[in-house]
Amino acid sequence: MNRSNHSQSTQPSTEEAKVNISGSEALIRSLLAEGVDTMFGYPGGAIMPVFDALYDHKNDIKHILVRHEQGAVHAAQGYARVSRKTGVALVTSGPGATNAVTGITDAMMDSTPLVVISGQVISGLLGSDAFQEADVIGITQPITKWAYQVRRAEEIPWAVSRAFYIAKSGRPGPVVLDITKDAQINKLDYTYSRTSFLRSYIPFPESEMENIKAAAELINRAQKPLALVGQGVILGNAEQELMTFLEKGNIPFGSTILGLSAIPSDHPLNAGMLGMHGNIAPNMNTNECDVLIAIGMRFDDRVTGNLNTYARQAKIIHFDIDLAEMDKNVKTTVKVLGNAKDTLPLVTALIEERKHSEWMEKFGQYKKTEFDCVIKAELYPENGGELKMGEVVNKVSEATGHKAVCVTDVGQHQMMATRYFKSTLTRSMVTSGGLGTMGFGLPAGIGAKYGAPDRTVCIFVGDGGLQMSIQELGTILEYNIDVKIILLNNNYLGMVRQWQELFFDERYSETHLKNPDFVKIAEAYGIRGRKVTDRKELDSAIEEMLSHEGAYLLEAVVETKGMVYPMVPAGGSVTDILIGNGHKL
Ligand SMILES: Cc1ncc(C[n+]2csc(CCOP(=O)(O)OP(=O)(O)O)c2C)c(N)n1
Prior knowledge:
single chain, alpha/beta, six-stranded parallel β-sheet, globular
């Protein structure tokens, strides 16, 4: 993935008087100077001096001891995604750091600001295959915005200050600081300066007025405009600017999976989700519109399908903060570089107030088709039978007044949750979009609760994914974390089973799961649990879950062979939509 370069210069913005302290103490003070009050981690030999320093700062920084380093990073991601802050994870060398790699990659793919700090063997042993030595910089360089090994205590404040600046500025992402044990122990004269500038790193590029005007002109000439809203809007805190823009131009929009919740689900211009399991209207109309306006999204293959048939008829405007995304997958007519928060108002000022009634009708028609062919049977099944994932998601969403944070794992339940969990507030959908990491949901939900303690956090997870990070129930037990876990149990690796049914002649190779008693497992961790198989019990179970103070596991036993529709098969066109039983739209 291309990201901009960074240089060495740091301009001081805040100063403290010099004090002579250990590298570990300096690390903690530097984190405090960056406003860190919560972090997630797991100790070990090479990071022990830092944990020892943390012991003296228990009242300043909350450290959450997770049960696996992958969980620490996913929790830091969940925290960052809902709180607008940078997530912090602290792990030991060797296996501690390698366990963190999946989470770091996930954060890179999903542009999540993180600082991951790993311990490293003492600098004199580097390169000797010392106990628990791993080439953490070599491993993480391709999956971070910046990975730096700190070998001298004096470098710690400088490195931390750069790390936070790089993680959060421009297009956010993860940074790794790998700190040798001697750098943690040795003394330095500590002062701290926050970084606000790095030579040759331009995180906030300025848009050219020429392009702003060109974009506005195209929009003013459009009869059938369609906007594609990505996470860039949320990361740039540009939700209000987007709303004003869309409303003035009367522009319908679809959201990428990570763009969900930027604008309330029930907004009249909201046509739903784009992509493989997205809604019919925005997918079909991608190939009908005359001007396609992509805002903070990266034309991921799950959104575009076959690029050769993607929006060929449309003029394309791309708003993005990252030049590397421009023309990467889709050739654009006009590029508007910059933070959507700055660029959207400039374009809004130049566009005319419009009404696109006829065009809007096309969205309504597709919406009705989707309701009749797919949604009705999924949310309101009439002929009894087993519970359906969609109806459980829909009922939980309704019971929370569509105000909860929805966190998902990966699989069919993820697609059902992103399709049917509605939101009225921004930063309400936390899901692994780019990497599709099973095991993400439970720890990310824990982090989300710390990031948004006043909001209800609902974690949707499958029976496969729950068992990829089930040990984090121990973290919930330890800290009494009030998360609502909704296990949609189909006793299958459902999404893979769906592909086997559709594309591998129903040869169900290694996808059936013989599962444990999940409610008993939850109880063993001190978590109230209830299993529901009968539709008649669903409402009362949801009510019990939401009124219970503390963590709750609701296991909904859903149909074993449920399918997620609509579906654009991988590599197909956005208009090649399956709506059930192999039928095309
Ligand atoms: C770490 C990881 N391994 C494998 C996969 C491939 N994969 C995607 S979805 C899925 C099945 C998930 O099953 P489950 O958690 O039970 O959820 P369901 O699809 O049944 O809702 C698998 C194996 C993945 N995404 N992540």
